[in-house]
Amino acid sequence: MPKSYWETVPGKNIPSSLELYPVVYSYLQEGYKILDIGCGFGKISLELASSGYSVTGIDINSEAARLSRAVAKSLEHDRKMEGMTEFVVANAIDLPFRGSSFDFAVMQAFLTSVPDPQARTRIIQDTFRVLRPGGYLYLVEFGQNWHLKLYRKRYLQDFPVTKEEGSFLALNPETGEVEFIAHHFSEKELVFLLVNCGFEIDYFRVEELKTRTGNRINGFVVVAKKL
After folding, report:
1. Three-state SS for 91?
2. How far is CA 147 from each of CA 60, 109, 153, 181, 217, rounded to the nearest angstrom?
3. How do residues 34-50 score in pLDDT, each as one tens digit?
């Protein structure tokens, strides 16, 4: 089976344009075990670890995991960081953890990079499985921005290829070549993806998000609870 774009791209080139929103800290409690899904080169995992939480980051990109481990190792002179992170190469569709292993999960602009709707459902289902009852998923995703001419044009012109409303071809900014299919969510689509997999929405807010190319568009910050 051929490797996906995200398995082969240099780990340092994985986009990471978003910061954690403060609401995440109102849910975290001392002793929580956190799973960072699609952790890339570990920016968010390391931020959470520096705040005193045990974090496991997973990514399908082996170089990204290696870079994350190297940065974590370099920070271990700070004793509060020692042993606080683990980085695993894994596919989010089939997480290599037992059920109820984590108190909290993080997904920052991760589902946007998954072009198959069935795969997105399987990812949310497996995230539900590894969270303990009462655990939370913090999720940030780009919304559909039909009011912006640039995105309206891309959604429409790329639909014959993507076959899904709100999806478009993400191009290399320098070469113009297609790198991957990106997906932007409608509010209804994202809510029902979570609810149909067993979550209940505990926090939902529309925020202006920054894309990897520097565009500022509307998106969603969500905290969902495993009932």
Report:
1. coil
2. 34, 21, 10, 21, 10
3. 999 999 999 999 999 99
Find out whether 203 and 221 touch, Cβ atoms under 8 Å: yes
SS3 state at 216: strand
Task: Give dist(CA 48, CA 45) in Å, integer.
Answer: 5
- Could you report the per-residue pLDDT of 82-136, keeping only the tens digit for each? 889 999 999 999 999 999 999 999 999 999 999 999 999 999 999 999 999 999 9
**CB 18, CB 210: distance < 8 Å:** yes
* Cα diameter, the chain: 53
* Residue 2's pLDDT band (cuts 50, 70, 90): low
Residue with tokens 């076959």: 163
List the alpha helices (DSSP H) in the chain.
5-8, 23-27, 43-50, 62-74, 117-130, 149-162, 187-195
- The stretches of 37-148 forming alpha helices (DSSP H) are 43-50, 62-74, 117-130
Nearest CA among 86, 107, 111, 113 for reference residue 9:
113
Q: Which fold has domain 5-11+22-141+198-226?
A: Rossmann fold (3.40.50)
Extents of the domains making up the chain: 5-11+22-141+198-226
Q: Please state the rounded mean pLDDT for residues 181-188.
A: 98
